[in-house]
Specification:
Number of domains of chain B: 1
Strand content of chain A: 5-15%
Order of helices and strands of chain A: HHHHHEHEHEHEHHEHEHEHEHEH
CATH architecture of chain A: Alpha-Beta Barrel
Number of helices of chain B: 8
Radius of gyration of chain A: 19 Å
CATH superfamily of chain A: Aldolase class I
CATH architecture of chain B: Alpha-Beta Barrel
Oligomer: heterodimer
Largest sheet of chain A: 8 strands, parallel, barrel
Distance between the termini of chain B: 54 Å
């Protein structure tokens, strides 16, 4: 059964009530388990768990160290196109926005990729908006083929595709798929995506499953934090991650924690997530998802990113530019403002200072043949 | 096991001698320098390296440049391989780029518990041995699989003590005991050992060696923990060679009193 059929019973209103009604005793029971289950998460993210946050954080840190060691993987996004036909209320690429639209030629993509390689990156995330008529799977495939020898791991964060197109990109050398649901609350989703192909809530969820079927080694999911209550999103993310783990048991699950930052349109998130809540969410999820990669981007301020090392994060972007071509030229039309603007070397130095090994290569392209 | 026990008590694998019976992994360390110091403190003769982590073409690779190939055997592993074909490709890369002929075979298609796939491991072992590699397979504690891997020509058997990275200890001891009893090649307990006492228990039982990574790499002081594991392995080995007595559910006095005191 696809996850889109399973999420209906989650009903955000009922979930919010369950979380609000959680008691300190339920939190204590959850924390008494060697491995809390998804049924414990409502209590662990609830207001009743706030007095236990220090314990939750310590356990999250211990689990992360045990499972991943004292290392953090580094990657960089490479924006290929900012053309988009969607109308996402929160996104800099939204259709109708007057940003400068561009997409990279294969040569420009290689030129930008070369900068990332010089900076040390061996893992890259290719990003586009959603306008497959103008920048589609053919274009992405050409870039993947052209940069295949430059990186050991190539992931995509693009538009939902058919199973055949995902399989094609997997064969071309893509090993990871990231596709945020943005929000798991169908009502909120509808209001945030009033037009364009992205209106289809279930279709977006099902795309991740098509990616799992295509054999991507990593399936990345996430909610854009600030759209709907974070506590509910956390419970939904865990359910989604566990569902994907069961169904696509060969794939590693990665959970990203993007928080809304201004994209030039002055969008005010309806449910802003404060720093302590952000930490709470990540730590509580780690207790339930001990083996998932947790990803934090340069949307977050440097000081907070530094604090998340050792808590739950296992993968970070660094030195990101969020407009096509911006590693080489000025690059206009960014998706969001980078907040942590340190260079990759500076982020690596921070990790070393904290007693963590910055890992640039954690996969070898030989594996995928 | 016969091969590994001789007068000097070296560990002998495929004709090569090692004075230490502790093998080390190189993942999860806070930095390459600590890793190198821990390897040094462990006294190990065999260090395994995940090929997915290193760049064999780069002489400045941060991990490889901290490993002294003149002091220990660097044993590349196929970690990250999901099937036999992937493992064989990685092994051939290791040979082509680094001249490595010994391979620690790991085929772990499931990314969370990283349990070895018995079917693909056996397939890969056959393919690699055909291609002239010396193969040391990471495996489930399955005595029949051990028989099959040994028949295929593997140089060691490396059953897990517990799921990798869990530090849960020697949970598979009853099955590993059968593997040890039946094996004619060295048995190395690999994965899951969290404390020197776990390593010692495996060695006391007759394992030829143990492989440790996480428990050392994430310790508060990895160098001190490497030293502690070396001690645990040595103590366990010495106890095994000394011939441990049997166990009993009844208390038995260490200075028997029978016949010395008469009540009548």
């Amino acid at each position: 059964m696809p996850f889109s059929d399973q999420i209906a019973p989650l009903r955000f209103e009922a979930l919010a009530e369950r979380i609000a009604d959680a008691t300190p005793a339920q939190v204590e029971i959850a924390l008494s388990r060697e491995r809390p289950g998804p049924g414990d998460l409502a209590a662990l993210v609830s207001p009743a768990a706030v007095p236990s946050l220090q314990i939750i954080k310590e356990r999250a840190g211990a689990i992360t160290t045990q499972r991943f060691g004292r290392v953090v993987n580094l990657y960089a996004p490479l924006y290929l196109s900012n053309r988009c036909t969607n109308h996402c209320a929160y996104c800099g690429f939204t259709s109708g926005s007057d940003i400068e639209r561009s997409d990279l030629s294969v040569e420009e993509a290689v030129e930008n990729a070369s900068i990332l390689v010089e900076e040390g990156f061996r893992h890259v995330l290719l990003v586009t908006g959603e306008d497959p008529g103008r920048y589609g799977v053919d274009d992405i495939e050409k870039v993947v083929t052209a940069i295949g020898g430059m990186f050991h791991s190539i992931s995509i964060e693009v538009f939902p595709m058919t199973a055949d197109d995902y399989a094609r990109l997997e064969r071309a050398g893509v090993d990871g798929l990231t596709l945020y649901q943005e929000t798991y609350d169908p009502g909120c989703y509808a209001s945030m995506h009033p037009a364009g192909p992205k209106r289809d809530f279930a279709g977006r969820l099902e795309a991740v499953e098509r990616g799992g079927g295509a054999g991507f080694r990593t399936l990345g999911i996430g909610a854009l934090l600030g759209l709907a209550p974070w506590r509910c999103e956390a419970v939904a993310i865990a359910a989604h991650a566990l569902h994907l783990s069961r169904r696509f048991w060969r794939s590693r699950i990665a959970v990203s924690f993007p928080r809304i930052v201004p994209a030039g349109r002055g969008f005010d998130p309806p449910c802003p997530v404060m720093d302590d809540e952000f930490v709470h969410m990540m730590a509580a999820l780690r207790l339930v998802l001990p083996d998932a990669e947790f990803v934090v981007s340069t949307r977050e301020p440097a000081a907070l990113r530094d604090r998340l090392v050792g808590l739950a994060v296992t993968r970070m972007s660094a030195g990101s530019k969020t407009a096509p071509g911006a590693y080489v030229t000025r690059g206009a039309g960014e998706q969001f403002c980078v907040v942590d603007d340190r260079t990759p070397a500076e982020v690596a130095d921070m990790l070393v200072r904290q007693g963590y090994d910055p890992v640039w290569k954690d996969f070898d392209r030989t594996l995928r043949g | 096991m016969q091969e590994s026990r001789d007068s000097t008590d070296d560990l002998v694998i495929a004709g090569r001698r090692f004075t230490s019976r502790l093998l080390l992994g190189t993942g999860k360390f806070p930095n390459p320098r600590t890793m190198a110091s821990a390897i040094d403190a462990s006294g190990t003769g065999i260090v395994t390296v995940a090929l997915r982590r290193v760049d064999l073409d780069d002489p400045a690779d941060s991990m490889m440049s901290h490993l002294d190939a003149s002091r220990y055997l660097i044993l590349p592993n196929t970690s990250g391989a999901r099937d036999a074909e992937e493992a064989v490709r990685v092994a051939k890369l290791a040979r082509a780029a680094g001249g490595f002929d010994w391979i620690k075979l790991e085929v772990t298609p499931e990314p969370n518990y990283l349990l070895p796939d018995p079917v693909e491991t056996l397939r890969a072992a056959v393919m690699l041995i055909d291609a002239g590699f010396t193969v040391l397979p990471y495996m489930n504690a399955d005595p029949i699989l051990a028989r099959r891997l040994e028949e295929a020509g593997c140089a060691t058997l490396m059953p897990l003590g517990a799921p990798i990275g869990t530090s849960r200890g020697f949970k598979t001891r009853d099955l590993v005991a059968i593997i040890i009893e039946q094996a004619s090649v060295p048995v190395v307990v690999d994965a899951g050992l969290g404390l020197p006492s776990h390593a010692s228990a495996a060695m006391e039982m007759g394992a030829d060696a143990v492989l440790v990574n996480t428990a050392i790499a994430i310790a508060g002081d990895p160098v001190a923990m490497a030293h502690a594991f070396a001690g645990g392995v040595r103590a366990g080995r010495e106890a095994f060679l000394a011939g441990a007595g049997g166990t009993s559910s009844l208390a038995q006095a260490s200075s028997p009193l029978g016949g010395q005191v008469r009540g009548d």
